[in-house]
Amino acid sequence: MKVILSLFLSFFLFISCGSNQKASQNITNNASEAYDYIIAFGSCNRQGEPQPLWEAIIEEKPDLFIWGGDNIYADTDDMAKLEADYQTQKNHPDYKKLLANTPVIGTWDDHDYGKNDAGKDWEYKEESQQLFLDFFDVPQDDIRRERKGIYHSADFEEAGKTLKVIVLDTRYFRSDLQKSKDANKRYDPDTSGTILGAVQWEWLENELNSTADYNLVLSSIQVLSAEHGWETWGNFPSEVEKLEKLLQTSEAKNVIILSGDRHISEFSEKKMEGLDYKLVDFTSSGMTHSYTNFNGEPNQYRVGEVVSNLSFGLLKFDFGSGEVKMEMRGVGNKLQQEYSVKYKD
Q1: What's the CA dihedral at 81, 87, 91, 96 to 10 degrees?
Q2: From the centroid of its chain, how far is CA 155?
Q3: How does DSSP assign 80-137, residue by residue?
Q4: Percentages helix, strand, coil for the chain, rounded to the nearest 5?
Q5: How many Cα atoms sit within 13 Å of 216 on the Cβ side?
Q6: What's the pLDDT at 184?
Q7: What 8-state DSSP symbol labels residue 269?
Q8: What is the pLDDT of residues 61-94, one digit of tens each?
Q9: Which pLDDT does position 300 carry in this prediction?
Q10: What is the β-pairing status of strands 302-307 and 255-259?
């Protein structure tokens, strides 16, 4: 069997040392390429709009698909509507084809949480959590049915290697955002707030005491890109510092961050003391709609170019060489940009 799921996935289908990147347009998939493990991921998906990327995602034959948040757009305090919106997505014929053959995991962001930019004070977060878990067919006896927040982890094994996916909840515990007086920004940094909350931080520290060969951390919002003034970990700089210190002191090897939310896709990387690889934040966002009017924004950690068309992300693992090829792909499976990283064994 291609995928072995452990930890919380018993019955549940779900997720430098050297680097180079290049952008290229209108390049189709190379079917002759062989990889040991392929992960596809994406975010920002309106359930009632055309969803033209599923065919391309299925064509890539991923071993795992990861939802990065805003898996539907509900924005409602009517839980019957939220449930119906989830069902609309679940009934999408192409998405059903993916589900039939591919494990699917994911996190939520604000629009499937239920309210734009909402955090810990969202009135219906408990009810929303149960509907989110229903969407992923999480068993009633799963720990996530009882505890607060939808964070969890899962191990996937292939060819003697283990990939660990650590799914963060950046909504349930997040402090209020600080409105900006700058007309060009929505929010300003707040040094006193939290994104994950104390209990989830303790859990994450334990999860990063990991023996996995690769550790993927899924955050619905960007971690490294922090200058744009929208939602980002950078709105809580003390949380960014805490995460970086944890990565530096943990036993986790080869950490890769996956993020969404922005309706654009981009690669960010940061060289950090104590890590023998560059920390990459791969943002893939805009499955049904994207920031087509994008005309630039600062990101000191960006490598390559911003992709503002519809796109999904791919990570292709070559266990022999340690290379992970990261790709942004669009409608018709067109390669939009790629970026390769070699990790140590």
Answers
A1: 140
A2: 16
A3: HHHHHHHHHHHT-HHHHHHHHHS-EEE---HHHHTSTT--TT-TTHHHHHHHHHHHTT
A4: 20, 25, 50
A5: 32
A6: 87
A7: E
A8: 999 999 999 999 999 999 999 999 999 999 999 9
A9: 98
A10: unpaired
